[in-house]
Specification:
The protein has 596 residues and is mainly alpha-helical. The chain folds into 2 domains: 415 residues, no CATH class; 137 residues, STAS domain (Transcription Regulator spoIIAA). Helix content is 58%, strand content 5%. It has 23 helices and 8 strands. It has a 6-stranded mixed β-sheet with strand order 4-3-5-6-7-8. A hairpin with a 6-residue loop joins strand 3 and strand 4. Helix 3 packs antiparallel against helix 14, helix 4 crosses helix 5 and helix 11 crosses helix 12. The longest helix has 29 residues.
Length: 596
Amino acid sequence: MNPSTPSDTPPEPGRIVRPIVANGRASWLRWLPGLYTLRHYQSAWLIHDVVAGLVLTTVLVPVGIAYAVASGLPSIYGLYATIIPLLAYALFGPSRLLVLGPDSSLAALILAVVLPLSAGDPQKAIALASMMALISGAICILAGVARLGFVTELLSKPIRYGYMNGIALTVLISQLPALFGFTIDADGLWHKMGGFIQAVLNGKINWTAFALGSATLAAIFLLKRSKRLPGILIAVVVATVTVSMFDLATRAGVAVLGALPQGLPAFSFPLIRSDDMLAVLFGGFAVALVSFADTSVLSRTYAARKGSFVDPNQEMVGLGMANLLTGLFQGFPISGSASRTPVAEAAGAKTQLAGLVGAIVVAILLMVAPGLLKNLPTSALAAVVIASAIGLIEVSELRRIYRIQRWEFWLSISCLLGVAILGVIPGIGLAIVIAVIEFLWDGWRPHSAVLGRVDGVKGYHDITRYPDARIVPGLVLFRWDAPLFFANAELFQNRTLDAVAASPLPVRWLVVGAEPVTSVDVTAADMLAELDDILQAAGISLYFAEMKDPVKDKLKRFGLFTRLGEEHFFPTIGAAVNGYTKAHTVEWTDWEDSSK
């Protein structure tokens, strides 16, 4: 079975569908999962996909328009960025169910680049956004081909929660003025918040627009759990009809969307100024990171429901192609949608044909009825975006993290504040830096222990946790719970020497329990050679136990294995203890066979 085309039925109990890597002449098919689906399409799926596509369209239009406006772009481009990704992902995407398009998690990222650089010029704004889509698409494709689909897993959950909460807060505050029926001219989260409060105090609220937006927001939340009623569609249609019936745009000054331009997206390579490229590059990288993190999690979630597997590298290629083609057809960066994918699933979608139907219907709307949504109030669009932003906020998981590990909770809060204070792009950069520091910290200052024999418990254990543990006279058993590399090499040497110095009896052997050591670099190998010299000068021999073969292979390349001799490497700690007791006359009774 192709990895990108899981069976529509659950696997047998006790079995999980895993990918079969294609080879030979058919290997290129794994990059085009849509062709496989087409070749194996079942006629019984057709009615389900068509109906799901029609239902999906009712959400695609208002959401696409809302996210375009939230990204600082003309509304029509939200529909362009809806049509093209659905077409591209149907061919290149590995998930049968995932719906791609404009997303609230990217709106703040796009706005952070577009708003200051475009200076109010809509054509320049879409050129900047399209170039971001091209860059993020190219990054995703290259990473997928290089099989780097694991990179987003380097961001821990607390860090992801932090930057997503920060993005949600940024999006929410940016949409508050539109919800209240006015506009403000301010950059940055705090300036926008200050401008919003000042405008409210100055009485700039359009209460009619606010009533429409609030009612739209309430309807979305009230109907959110309904699988049969499209809450966003109902709320937006009621708001549009209300404005039309009572002519609220003229009588009450309610800002409306206006008629959309007629026509389909055309090929257009975005051209931007060279001095704008650095900001767009950073923005495109941030978009690639966030969009793939969101898309991969969503894709894996729906694959798990089917008991199937989605190749993360192909997922990266599918997302990259969708962004690349969107950028070439007047669109802006897109991602997997956590709001529209459940709509497709609930409507009975079987394959990506549902997305194709949705894209075709949206295109027909642009051709024959571009004025259908001209009276859609912008406060209602703001409500759609705010509802999605609120959906991004994670509270319950942070409470759990706070209870079990406080420092990771504050790590998450730091990322949130980084996005809120520094801005979205620098905030994402800060999150990445913190992730790297978090990763290095565990290896930089790892746990280590001196081991002793605990009666009644098999093996050798940390003497700080078992104060009654017995120590083999003249033998120090030292365990190091991390890889050995340049950042912790000196610490390793200091801790081993401290363990030797703390021994109540003169030490003859130092045995390093190396089972947790997964790697050794040149710096660490040189440190071990230096440690051996120090120990030999004191009449102490250095030994290792439970070292993995790949680590031994590295020591052989570094010359350390030959220097110490094969006899200095024991398969188990128990074998090392037995070797020591045979080499030296010590009084030692082991109540269990520790060599096992």
